[in-house]
Amino acid sequence: MVLTQRSHVRRPTLEDVARQSGVSKSTVSRVINGEARVRAEVVDRVRRVIAELGYVPNQAARQLVTHRTNAVAVVAAQPENRLFLDPFFDLLLRGIRRELALHGSQAVLLFLEEPDDYARVADYLGGGHVDGAILFSLRPGDRHDRLAEIIDRLGLPAVFGGRPLLRDGDPVRPGQAHVDGDNRGGARLAVQHLVALGRRRIATVAGPYDQENSAADRLAGYRDVLGGTDAPHLVERADYTRQGGADAMAALLDRHPGLDAVFVASDLMASGALQTLRERGRRVPEDVAVVGFDDLTSIAETTDPPLTTVHQDIEEMGRLLARLLLAREDTPVGTPEGSPDGPSVIVPTRLVRRASA
Q1: I need a labelling partner for 128 at 20 to 30 A (CA). Which of 186, 202, 241, 320 fits?
Q2: Contacts of 310 (CB under 8 A, 6+ apart)
């Protein structure tokens, strides 16, 4: 047997790129780091040589120059198993990851589930590992407030998924950016549709008190339409899970068996509500019309019957979160907000009619 020694191909260096481009090493570095002090024709020539040679910049050295890690923390105050079982969060994370990838960055997912997680996450955010943070499902409370204060103190660019739920009377901090759907307007569309169908005893399965303001806003939209006809026995809270929706629907039927419609504040809860209605012998939509919220097609198109629901572009919301954060990262401290959309973005909603209402 004849053994041949593996040949090692030398990786092209910064000096190789500079030599073949006919420029200095510092000019090549400025091109790689995206600095504006290089003529367009030189940029084109250097990039062409980089592609021809297959040169890959040394990431560690590049970070020393740019002070950027090209990583973003996505902080979720949710149990890990629940997060990955909810299609909403899957779409949101997909949008975040795809937008960050377009800009050469990546997401680092961090969970806040146990009490010890808060100190660990705060240490990580303060350790220079990420350029910014996207946070969602934060609620008022000592640990959550302390984490937000730490982020403020670090000067770390941050945006929130959903309008932050603050303590009573607390204003949103100046520059506290967030991306959210038009929860109140979408809920109004849902209930207006039920009213237009001639339904008069309209209940709602609302989200929990301790979530972002989406739950409060969707309940407010329900009440906007019904006005004085709203009654406490027509409102039941649940936890944005399928089982929670099933249990809430059962409670509503027990209290008010004559209800003829229900607006459910999420598709996942609506799937549970439909199950309960079927078990109780109620026909949908003949006896009870059902409208959900989110338009998660993996749920809404497969329920029996298919679910009429309020559409919000969840993946686009994830993209907007990443885009808004990247704009804040590029804005020097002490300058006006750099995002062309301002500190916050509200994504419009629309009703998607299927067979349940």
Answers
A1: 320
A2: 186, 187, 189, 190, 291, 292, 293, 294, 295, 349, 350, 351, 352
Q: Residue 354 is encoded by which pair of tokens?
A: 């299927």
| pLDDT band with cut points at 50, 70 and 90 for residue 4 | very low
Range from 122-131, 249-258, 302-311 carrying the lowest mean pLDDT: 122-131
Compute CA 182 distance to the chain's CA centroid, rounded to the nearest angstrom.
14
Torsions phi, psi for 94 (to 5 deg): -60, -45
Written as six digits, the tokens of 307 are: 């679910």
pTM, rounded to two decimals: 0.75
Does residue 179 register a pLDDT over 60?
Answer: yes
What token pair was written down for 103?
């800009």
Using an 8 Å Cβ cutoff, are 318 and 99 in contact? yes
Alpha carbons 164 and 160: distance in angstroms, whole number: 7
**Beta-carbon contacts of residue 204 (< 8 Å; ≥ 6 apart):** 191, 219, 222, 234, 235, 236, 262, 263, 264, 265
pLDDT in tens, 181-212: 999 999 999 999 999 999 999 999 999 876 55
pLDDT digits (tens, 9 = 90+) for 26-65: 888 778 766 667 888 888 898 889 888 888 766 545 554 4
